[in-house]
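Working notes for the structural subgroup meeting. M.R. asked for a predicted model of this chain before we commit to crystallization trials. I am recording the input and output together here so anyone reviewing the notebook later can reproduce the run.

Input as submitted:
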Amino acid sequence: IEKRRSWFNVTQDRVVDQVSRLIRPGQTTITLGNSMGGFGALYFASALPRCTRAIAFAPQFSVHPLHISRADNRWAEFRNAIPTHHIEHALDRASPDVDYIALFGGEKKLDMLHARRMAAVATPRTHIILVNDADHGVARHIKGKGGLKPVLGFLLGHEKLDPVQLVRLLRNQGVRAARFRARLAEAAARPAESAEVSLPAA
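Returned structure, recorded in token form:
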């Protein structure tokens, strides 16, 4: 559906219509995506019938001119071709009844900037996980450690989400992971001279 790479600014109504038709009556829905698909997984969760969870690997928080950093030149060709920005950011219409899980690679400073901005508008049920040693290919990194299948099994199979248990599962698979807010608190507690973290200022 999204062949123009408009981050669904052009296709959002069609996406909701076509995906909603695939959902059977009474069926629970979970969205899942990577990069721009992760952006869509977060954004569309509140618009789809009975969606309880959105899972996103390395999503963009926003490509809207109001939010995108001038330092972030990735995908500029596609971003600049968006005729009108109808979507401000991935959590633009976030529902308090949906679990939002976003995993970011800690080695990509620009991705960390997206994580920071997402954390600023996060709902109480939004959980941002930082995966150290991974870049924008965070899903590939987890898969390389043999952890993608158990992580997806956990996220898709547990009705109640425990982010602490998710981080523990990742670590048991050899993936260096932490909850994003915990990492920020840890950095803030360090002396100024030693508080170097890979999280750029917003």
